[in-house]
Amino acid sequence: MKPALLEVMRMNRICRMVLATCLGSFILVIFYFQIMRRNPFGVDICCRKGSRSPLQELYNPTQLELSNTAVLHQMRRDQVTDTCRANSAMSRKRRVLTPNDLKHLVVDEDHELIYCYVPKVACTNWKRLMMVLTGRGKYSDPMEIPANEAHVSANLKTLNQYSIPEINHRLKSYMKFLFVREPFERLVSAYRNKFTQKYNTSFHKRYGTKIIKRQRKNATQEALRKGDDVKFEEFVAYLIDPHTQREEPFNEHWQTVYSLCHPCHIHYDLVGKYETLEEDSNYVLQLAGVGSYLKFPTYAKSTRTTDEMTTEFFQNISSEHQTQLYEVYKLDFLMFNYSVPSYLKLE
Ligand SMILES: *[C@@H]1O[C@H](CO)[C@@H](O)[C@H](O)[C@H]1NC(C)=O
Ligand SMILES: *[C@@H]1O[C@H](CO)[C@@H](O)[C@H](O)[C@H]1NC(C)=O
Ligand SMILES: *[C@@H]1O[C@H](CO)[C@@H](O)[C@H](O)[C@H]1NC(C)=O
Ligand SMILES: *[C@@H]1O[C@H](CO)[C@@H](O)[C@H](O)[C@H]1NC(C)=O
């Protein structure tokens, strides 16, 4: 521990100690200090294009046109750090991360990237991109990969599959990024996708039946059996019911980003936003040195959940439930700089 501490103290001015992550299956606790790689002399020592790591490109851009973007992303990182600090009691409830907490972190060894996937935030397309990046030539066009194949877990390697030293090494030297979205828009998107469409009954059976049983008075036998007509009001009542999270963690489609990706424990180098999806995604690809031949897929946006749609769904929710729901997602709002929606009637 001592040499690591000394090193951090010595480099304190140019570097930032970002994170002390503890990983432990037993009593095993490993602290790790992430050091941002800034060049202390301000001289550009290298390089052939593509020979620098994404982290170097991000924190020490060689291209002038990228410096404004770098400033924007520094502000986003600061926002996360400040929110974590201000809400440390809430955000650091679990001080120790275990490998099991790293299941959402997809690893690309070839380009030194770690992507934490958040369902309902373009994660299918980003998983497709990660398959192209890690495929060593197997794919060239992300859209040639069928959506269901992108979700087959064996097709991508996640950080929990490595040993603890390997995990620490990758957390330290890879560029870690995630994509976030306005929390209630994401929630309505999850609701619409899982409860208002008939094509896949697994969510109806697994969650719909439970929600109706608990939240609907005088439910019919058919509704209890099928679970396929959950109302948004009932879904919200289920989410704010304290029993729900005591029983088991939320499903990943409506779990908070801070619970899926642990941004107060893992220092994300880049926070991409759904609102600027293509721009932020292509920036990641550019930093990874593949921007010239790989672009984020553009696709039809007609069925996307919008702010207007979200407003409409919330109209039927009582202000008491709105307030409680906001509390559940509050850290995601604060961390990623989403303001309180204007349609909310908070108590
Ligand atoms: C947060 O959002 C506000 C308003 O949308 C914006 O002016 C500000 O620059 C943002 N801050 C960060 C850190 O992104
Ligand atoms: C339905 O969804 C589940 C879970 O997302 C998935 O495992 C299953 O393959 C899907 N079935 C169909 C027919 O799409
Ligand atoms: C449920 O059914 C009972 C008996 O039919 C009725 O008295 C009651 O009003 C119903 N409750 C609701 C919420 O519909
Ligand atoms: C709101 O409630 C009304 C009356 O119960 C219903 O007709 C309408 O579909 C609901 N709207 C939404 C978006 O759930």
From TrEMBL:
An MF annotation (GO) of this entry: sulfotransferase activity
TM regions (residue ranges): 14-33
Organism: Phyllostomus discolor
The name this protein goes by in its record: Carbohydrate sulfotransferase
Matches recorded under Pfam families: Sulfotransfer_2
EC number: 2.8.2.-
Subcellular location: Golgi apparatus membrane
Gene that specifies this protein: CHST11
UniProt record similarity statement: Belongs to the sulfotransferase 2 family.
Any one biological process term the GO annotation gives: proteoglycan biosynthetic process
Domain of life: Eukaryota
Root EC class: transferase
Keywords (A to Z) from UniProt: Carbohydrate metabolism, Glycoprotein, Golgi apparatus, Membrane, Signal-anchor, Transferase, Transmembrane, Transmembrane helix
InterPro entries: Carb_sulfotrans_8-10, Sulfotransferase
GO cellular component, one term: Golgi membrane
Membrane topology per record: Single-pass type II membrane protein
